[in-house]
Amino acid sequence: MQALLAERGVIVAVLISSGVPQRDRDDVAQDILLGAWRSVKRGMYRPDPTQDARKALRAWLFGISWRKTGHYLHSAWVRRAVLHAQPLGRLRELAGIDLHAQIEAREVLEALADLPDWQREALLSVDDPESLVAYARRRGMKPGTAASRLRIAREALALKLRRWRR
Known about the structure:
The chain has 166 residues and is mainly alpha-helical. It is built from 9 helices and no strands.
């Protein structure tokens, strides 16, 4: 491991020449050193005995650095990362629902949560694909009773929302 750490300059040179940002160089260098160490432990580093040992190690580390840097630069995280103090200011148009609509939706949900269970259930049954008659049968009540409960629940929700918006 000491020999690998002694050649850290080769790794950093590859990172700089490849365009790895300063903020990520230490992390990528660490990945390269760990990858090289694991390869040595698995017996994948087999230098030519006729070559200078240091030159062989430097060439081998250069290859590992070059490949790992390529993987890093082409990863989805790096390609899509935008570090900016005001990232929403870089958008050309609004993203998602506007703030006013989000506040209104939150008010409706809070008002809905404040209603009694039977009123909330009646209001949410409108969103079901089944008819009001099927809803009433499933609950063991007459369709007129279900319609009346739905009307009362709508009025209660409207009253709560009117109070909040004043």
